[in-house]
Amino acid sequence: MSVRAEDVADLVIRSRRAVLPEGEGPAAVAVRRGRIAGLHPYDAVLEAAEQVDLGDTALLPGLVDTHVHVNEPGRTHWEGFACATRAAAAGGVTTIVDMPLNSLPPTVNVAALTGKRSAAAGQCLVDVGFWGGAVPGNVKDLRPLHEAGVHGFKCFLSPSGVAEFPPLDVDGLRAAMVEIASFDGLLIVHAEDPELLAEPAGPGYAEFLDSRPGRSERRAVELVAALAGETGVRAHILHVSSALCLEPLARARREGVRITAETCPHYLTLTAEEVPRGATEFKCCPPIRTSANREQLWQGLADAVLSCVVSDHSPSTPDLKVPDFAAAWGGISSLQLGLAAVWTEASRRGHGLGQVVRWMAANPAALAGLDGKGAIAVGNDADLVAFDPDAGHTVDAATLHHRNPVTPYHGRTLRGVVRATWLRGRVVGDTPGGEFLRPSPAGARSPGPERATEERPSP
């Protein structure tokens, strides 16, 4: 019997460990025109132009990292779209959402968003979305940015570290929330109360940690939750490092407040006790805390108080990482390493690949309104990752694709290796094929991409 051309897949990938929404098991994933066309038994006889059998190597959906500072334009010597998206693909990340700072200008109006898209065009190896910024005086720019396709708006409650992106005070926060709620947008918040922050009393890590106590995060979370309840806005707390935030987050959710929260690989894997003297590659804000705090964050994930694990990839040039925690730039480069770092610690605690995929793919996709991303499901984009969960490797910063080889993971042995990454059914290589993304309209299956390259290759 002849096979109709429309029944021949472009690609079939088989794995005995395919991580599907309903669980992990053997499957054959058929891809046609860049989308998942069918899910079949592992040994099903399927016609395809290309067949890949991964055997016991796991097949995951491409990860979605909604917290990446690419820094281009303006600080491209810190990081840029070409190297950031290459690092993402190497780490199994097929979609990133770029933060509105530390680029110059920051993405606080439509002109800046247009400039950022122009800077990124033709460079991206994975799909890219953009956050807008909420800063003092730009309430009038929020709706136009929303209509131009940003996924939401980031604000700081404490100094951001760059003068061009100042924090909101309480009145400014409320005004931004009222405006964003009027079009059912999303506000994402760097939540530290500035009144509880101080300059470090010395150059060491202990002094730095004392200068940014966990109660500063908790008090800021309580403020955001109260104002979100008052205004009805959707709010999301970024990079939770302190377990003191878990109780007020859980309470707000029980009370019906529309609030979610994330944490990051470095808070789940690294601890204050292990930071070497002068090792400012470990510096970030809010800071890495104690091992006991780390275990409470893992419990917060298990309890679904924290819903996402994303990188907060915030690189700089090595010269800014001076060996003084009071003076060094605060930011951790981990875009390429997040999956392995999280899997290393998750597997030790009895969590499976399905839970890691939920935290690092499905939930971030939902947060950013990216229907069609984050799960191996019929109709979704064929963004897929071959991941060997049992292979170990020792991190060498010099081999990473980040522009600047600075990472606290250098020399650390991690479990799990990405063997291949597919974007819409094509292996990610050296040719840019990423697209710019917009949040999906309610009920839509597709994220409605714009082109991020001169021409999108036809499937």
TrEMBL record:
One of its GO terms (molecular function) is allantoinase activity. GO terms for biological process: allantoin catabolic process; purine nucleobase catabolic process. Transmembrane segments: none annotated. Its EC number is 3.5.2.5. GO terms for cellular component: cytoplasm. Its cofactor is Zn(2+). Keywords: Hydrolase, Metal-binding, Purine metabolism, Zinc. Pathway: Nitrogen metabolism; (S)-allantoin degradation; allantoate from (S)-allantoin: step 1/1. It holds the Pfam family Amidohydro_1. Belongs to the metallo-dependent hydrolases superfamily. Allantoinase family. Homotetramer. This is allantoinase.
